[in-house]
Amino acid sequence: MDWKEVAINKSLTARCSSSVVMSYGFVMSIMRIAEFNLTFPLIKEPRHRLKQERVNDTEGNAVTSSYDFTGNQAQEKTSVPCKPVNNILFLKVHKTGSSTVTNIFNPYGDKRDLIFALPTEDSFHWPLRFEETTRYITILRDPPAQLESVFNYYDIYRKTFQPQSSPTTPLESFFQNITFYRSSRVLDGLGVDLNLLKNPSLFDLGLDREYHENLTVVQDYIRCLQQEFDLVMLMEYFDESLVLLKRQLCWKMEDILFFKLNERVQKEKQHISNQVREQIKKWNSADVLLYDVFNQTLWQKIMKEGPDFFEDLSIFKKEKEAMENKCLRKGKFLTKLWVRKKVQGYKLKTNISRELNTTRAKMTMNELKYLSYLQRKVTKQLQDVDDNRIGPIRMTR
Ligand SMILES: Nc1ncnc2c1ncn2[C@@H]1O[C@H](COP(=O)(O)OS(=O)(=O)O)[C@@H](OP(=O)(O)O)[C@H]1O
């Protein structure tokens, strides 16, 4: 199918239009997501591959299989016939492990020369048209841990009020002064975006802050997201979520191997006391509700998979560990994200094959670097399409 001609059946706004808040808040917020989170990959089949896949279909379906850590096919494990899903929309949510997930999709699509839909400017200009077959995926994190990560990663603790030699932690002091910080004007003045602090997941998923205290709207919105998203992963169950993803997309074990990205250095992490945890849960109660619903949904889905899900999970954990042992040097390494920001990084062993080095190096690549590489690649792909007089591929509203 030509993705220029595809109808908007899976547009979020179209599917959720019956909801109270969808018509305005959702669209606007989605635009903001793309502004904050530059990567918003939608993997698309290139035309030549679509043709090829049709041929494959008539000849027989693909069979999922298991790979060992070297990338060689070890043995066919699963025998349920299925066809790998290659049309994917991944919606990034701040500080949920989303860069690691992006770096699973990036090499997957890159290796197969799939087309990435990436924003040309800062925004993706929703609502967009997506094929009916597109799978919508996102990831959430336990709200207190997410807030602690946001708070420290974006140096909010430096910008907010912290008395000199205070015995309280920055988060404790933030909550002691919460009435003061409640207004976005105060935080704006400090150069802090309240949307990162106030129910950041729901905001990234499109619900404007003005609705966050309205339980009916929040519940409606969550119901809508449940219909809309094919898989909502959870950072706390990262491996479980990935194995489910692999099964839902009919991918191979090798396709979901990853290196954890964007992890703060230990000294930047802050212990969250029980009291602060409860304060965060109250402050971000809409995100707590969202998380609880999708926690339940994830486990319902896992239970439906049956006991062999856990066999897959244990194979995956072993393969991942073996890959790390084979490819990564021991020790602590840092990688620079931007001028002042360093996070945990990796160094590859020198005694691995060149082929393996290339694959694994891409898996350790930081998101922004991968993004600019993909942007160059997609530009070239589009030129090739033009050269074949097939016409440019555009995202249309
Ligand atoms: N696989 C896996 N398992 C557990 N935790 C993981 C994983 N991958 C990433 N992370 C943690 O996710 C945090 C970074 O999230 P994001 O990549 O979404 O951040 S960003 O918004 O794109 O900057 C960051 O959390 P903090 O270290 O607490 O800041 C990462 O450590």
Automatic annotation (TrEMBL):
Q: Please give the name of this protein.
A: Galactosylceramide sulfotransferase
- Name where it's found: Golgi apparatus membrane
Membrane topology, as annotated: Single-pass type II membrane protein
- Highest taxon, organism lineage: Eukaryota
Query: What is the scientific name of the source organism?
Result: Porites evermanni
- Which Gene3D superfamilies does the record match to this protein? P-loop containing nucleotide triphosphate hydrolases
Reply yes or no: does the keyword Transferase apply: yes
What keyword terms does UniProt attach to this protein? Glycoprotein, Golgi apparatus, Membrane, Signal-anchor, Transferase, Transmembrane, Transmembrane helix
Coiled-coil regions in this chain?
A: none
Task: Give the family this protein belongs to, as stated in its UniProt record.
Answer: Belongs to the galactose-3-O-sulfotransferase family.
Q: Does the keyword Membrane apply?
A: yes
